[in-house]
What does this fold into?
Amino acid sequence: MTDTSIPKPLPKTTISAQGCHLLDAFNPQTVNVDSPAIQVMTDLSRVPVATITASATLDDANRAMMARGVRLLLVVNETLQVAGLMTSVDILGEKPVLAAQRREVKRHELRVADVMVPVDKMDALSMDDVKKARVGHVVATLKADGRAHAIVVGQDTKGRQALLGIFSASQIARQLGVQIHTHEMARTFAEIEAVIAGV
It folds into this structure.
C-alpha cells in the first residue's frame, strides 16, 4: 500500500515548438480610432486591480505602483468598497506639498487619505456607454477631462454598482502603436492624436 500523504512532483509538459504565447490580457491587440472602446479597457474581471488602503503612507503607495507597474491605485476600505483613487501625479505632484503645509506635517507623515481623490469626487463612465463607444471617444473623454485614466462602472452579478474596468491613456497609446517616453499627459495626447490623424 502506497502512502498518499506525501505529495508527488507534478509531471512535466513540453513547450510548443511554435512558441508559447502571452494571454491577450497581457498582450493587447493593436487598435485604431474606430475600434470598439472595450478593446482598450482593462477588464477587471480578467486583470486584478492594484489597490491600497487610505491609511497607507505615500511612500507605500509609490512602492506599490512601482511594484505593479501602474500609475493608478484604487483606495479600498476593509469591505473592499472603493473609497477613492490615487494616481502617480497625486503622489509626485504638488498635492503632497500642499497637504503637508495645510496639515503642518512633514511629507513622509502623509497618508493616502490626505491626497487621494475621494469616491464622491470621482467621475466614472457607464459600461452601457462604453459598449457603444469607439477608441476615439475614450481618447476625447480623457483629453477633455485632462486625465490619464477613466474608470468604468456597471452592475455586478448581485445587482450592485461595481468597478468593471479602467481606461489608461498610456495603455491606449501602446495599443495604437505610440511610443510613450514621458509622463506628461499633454504630450501623450498629442502623440495619440498624431496617430489618429495619420501623421
Q: What stands out?
A: Residues 25 and 47 are 7 Å apart (CA to CA).
